[in-house]
Amino acid sequence: MKAHSAQRVVRAQAAESRPSPARLYALILFMVLSWALNFVIGKVALREIPAMVLPGMRIGLAALCLVPVYLWDARRGPRQRWTWADAPQLAIVSVCGITFNQFFFIAGLSRTSVGHSAVIIALTPMLVLALAAVAGQERITPAKVAGMTIALAGVGALQVSKSSAAAATPLGDLYAFVGTLAFSLYVVAGKALSTRYGSIAVNTFAYWVGALTLGPLAWFERASFRLSYLSAAAWWSLAYMAVFPSVIAYLIYYHALAYMPASRVSMFTYAQPILATLLGFALLGEPVTPSLVTGGALVLAGVWVAELRA
């Protein structure tokens, strides 16, 4: 009887600590909006901060913000201790997931439109599935092959229209794709590390590696760039990019995973390229071309098909 009573108390406490569906969905919506707005804010920051400088500044500030998050997470329970044997893998994973990803994301954003960049980054789940299959973590299925084919056709469709050539270029789209591929490698290669050390610990380490490797790139802009030249809008844009999509939205994502399946949380991310495109149109005046609509629809459809029974 006492055991049953204790179980009822535990269930009651768990139910009380569980956030209401309305609050949980509101947080997820805020997360998706934060990620979508990041593309537009990045465009604003690039008006004053060179593409070689912005990644290091953003990641350096985000790394500082993650330190108290890491210390808070470390107090929640014991994790496996860091070992030097994992250092090479941690370094490689960090360079892929942060250094290469952020360098090519910003380089791509400076040469393409918000809509193109957001649609290409929406390929991430499909690329993760493909790389996981190569690594033996996933099984190749007809649905995955079909989804990859459809999504790649969508990327090809983005290159058809010439009406938005001033805002979107093939080189910018290529950079965005390389950055997305680098992050997908980070997800697959870092899976075992996250299991051992925890995702927050691995991400904090990765951000610090990213800050140390991206920071020196500012040297190439030393002749023309000065921090004192930046306006308040540039500083606020930098702060937003470092804090909201890199830290707050990331914490919301893992908070949501504690209360709902990953597949359901991922479904909400399908809205990210749509929101980003609409925000780019509304706030920056970027055109919404037929090729962007067609390519975006094909990419989202391909990702959805590839994730069927993934």
Question: Which features characterize this protein?
Answer:
mainly alpha, 310 residues, 14 helices
Radius of gyration: 20 Å
Parts with pLDDT < 50 across at least 5 consecutive residues = 9-14
N→C terminal distance: 43 Å
Order of helices and strands: HHHHHHHHHHHHHH
The fraction of residues assigned to DSSP E strands is under 5%
How does the major sheet shape up?
A: none
If helices are DSSP runs of H or I spanning 4 or more residues, what is the number of helices? 14
Question: What share of the residues lie within helices?
Answer: over 70%
Number of domains: 1
Find the count of extended strands (DSSP E, 2+ residues).
Answer: 0
The general outline is globular
The helix/strand class is mainly alpha
Overview of this protein structure:
By secondary structure, this protein is mainly alpha-helical. The chain has one domain (21-140, 162-286). Helix content is 74%, strand content 0%. The chain is built from 14 helices and no strands. Helix 3 (54-74) packs across helix 4 (87-109) and helix 5 runs parallel beside helix 8 (170-189). It is globular.
Layout of strands and helices, then pairs:
Elements: H1 2-17, H2 21-46, H3 54-74, H4 87-109, H5 114-121, H6 124-134, H7 142-158, H8 170-189, H9 191-197, H10 199-214, H11 232-257, H12 262-269, H13 271-284, H14 290-306
